[in-house]
Amino acid sequence: MMIFATIGADIPQDLLLACEGYQGPVGWTVDRATPRADQWLESRFAPWTRSVLEDWAAGAFDGLDAILFSRGDDNSQRLYYYACELRERGLLKGPEPLIFDVARINRPTSAARTINAVRTTAARLGLDDAALEAGIAKANAQRGTAPTALPGPVCFLTGTAPPDRRIHAMIEAAGWSAAGETLADQWQRAGATVEAGTGDPAAAIGRAVHADSFGPRGFHDRAGATLAEAQAAGAKAAILWFTEEEEGLVWHAPAQQKALEAAGIAVLPLTRCSWLAQDGIDAKIAGFLAEQAA
What we know:
This protein has 294 residues and is of the alpha/beta class. The chain is 43% helix and 15% strand. It contains twelve helices and eight strands. The strands form two sheets. The chain has a four-stranded parallel sheet, sandwiched between helices. It has a four-stranded parallel sheet with strand order 6-5-7-8, with helices on both faces. The N and C termini lie far apart (57 Å).
């Protein structure tokens, strides 16, 4: 049995829940110093990558056989190649880096590539069709669980997925309920229901992953998806929070803000923010939500 953890979004939960050795996504320590990782990674890497690589170099993952990265996230994909190179040079030990080669473009070749990624990864993890069907059943059971309704008023947090619930806590300190995913939540999102009993569970999982492109590199209407999630949460206000290092998702901010405001949801856009959320945004959030409550 392979003992492994994951890094990145878009790795199907059906595949992961089929594995007894799956340990969940790797963690990170947001406020730690990362002297070794700083020597190896360029400044535009997301801060969580530095914490992960620092922990890896310190032996924190030595109990794992492998770490499975996703190609559905630029930071995850680049970190995979750096980890491979550092291991080859003898600068990094511990688990073997693997990658789930998800493809996102809406065309048959991308769908076929994603299905092949499921087959390849399942084989590497020692999973047969029966195990994959069991994983589909477990994941579909999770997908059938209705989210808990939040007491109002609700503020929806979106943009760069934050490292933990520290920004949610700022919203809650202002007397609002906070909705929206953390980075770990995003990496563990169940996605759309997968068809069971097809006779080819790898193909069923691959088709569902390809069609349900919610990760950072997904091709879909992000403004519409943001509005749908905010409305599903019952949000009366929304915060668009993007870190200094964010280079992709921030381009969708104007369309997201326009869609939310057109639906009557007040928006606070926050860009070029600190990953640590120690740049005074608590006061900005408190002031914004006080205005909405007035």
